[in-house]
Design brief:
Distance between the termini: 13 Å
Radius of gyration: 15 Å
Oligomer: single chain
Largest sheet: 6 strands, parallel
Length: 197
């Protein structure tokens, strides 16, 4: 038990999950993770960004997404009566990227779960979305499809070397959508979260 009354060396108390830019909080991949992680005793809060909730196609600016994640983290932490740093954050594609940017900007978290991280736009490997990686001083799980045009396994291995926190890379058969791989991804995320110390 730490000085602040928190258990040390335990898995996260909760997980805030975010969708990709063209999805909502009920995306099958998020539902699958929610189901398995909740059964393991970790509370899950699936959220969506304001433009998604309003049914708009255009994503919100990063500042709006980051503030949405911050508010959701504080709300879940208050509900669970834990500090925000006891929560894991993550999601699919853009949602996961926004969670990682929120952490880089100072939001405390236990870990990041980054499913189909969009390392660069398809066909534009020079436009990397990694400038904030050196600020990620926490455990990070990257789960991506081997045929993801947003980042190949080799590219992810190379770029995640800039992350100072412990990095776990898992590649599954599939493209960026990971369609029909939802339960496989959930079965990767859950034991990783529960195994965190």
């Amino acid at each position: 038990m730490g000085h602040d009354g928190l258990m040390t060396g335990s898995s996260p108390a909760g997980l805030v999950l975010t969708p990709g830019s063209s999805a909502r909080r009920d995306h099958p991949g998020l539902l699958a993770v929610d189901h398995v992680v909740t059964e393991a005793g970790i509370a899950v809060e699936r959220i969506e960004f304001p433009s998604q909730a309003a049914g708009k196609r255009r994503p919100d600016p990063p500042a709006v997404c980051i503030e949405t994640i911050r508010a959701a983290s504080e709300a879940l932490a208050a509900r669970l009566k834990v500090a925000p740093r006891r929560l894991a954050l993550g999601g699919r594609s853009m949602g996961g990227r926004m969670c990682s940017m929120a952490v880089a900007e100072g939001l405390k978290a236990a870990a990041l779960v980054l499913i189909s991280y969009p390392l660069h736009p398809p066909g534009r490997p020079e436009r990397l979305r990694t400038e904030h990686f050196p600020q990620l001083q926490l455990p990070c799980l990257f789960v991506s499809g081997r045929r993801d045009p947003f980042g190949t396994p080799a590219e992810l291995k190379k770029e995640t070397a800039a992350v100072p926190g412990p990095v776990t890379l898992v590649f599954v058969d599939g493209d960026h959508s990971l369609r029909k791989r939802e339960s496989e991804v959930a079965d990767i995320v859950c034991p990783w979260l529960t195994g965190l110390k």
